[in-house]
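Weekly modeling sync, notes
Attendees: S.R. (lead), two postdocs, one rotation student

Agenda item 3: backlog of single-chain predictions. S.R. asked that every request posted to the team notebook include the full sequence so nobody has to chase files. The rotation student volunteered to paste the first one in as an example of the format we agreed on. Action items at the bottom.

Example entry:
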Amino acid sequence: MMKELIKPFACTLCSASFSHKFMLEAHIGTHSSVKSHRCDYCSASFVQKVALEKHLLTHLGKYLFGAPTEKVYRSTIDKGPHF
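Predicted structure, as returned to the notebook:
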């Protein structure tokens, strides 16, 4: 039986809740229209730094996760059943 995860940090702008305060703080930015993280290579900009970091990989040609096959993926999500 799985232990229920307690999420005491609730967003006041939506129904999301989080187990850690830092996760809530990162989430709050998603409600903002201010995209302060700008790409140095193109005109793209992002609310969250992590989104910019993932975007930068498209310019740098680097991948975070390899695969047992010849194909490489930018994230474990992109791998799907290969992971």
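Discussion: group reviewed the output briefly. The radius of gyration is 17 Å.
Action items: rotation student to repeat for the remaining queue; S.R. to check formatting next week.
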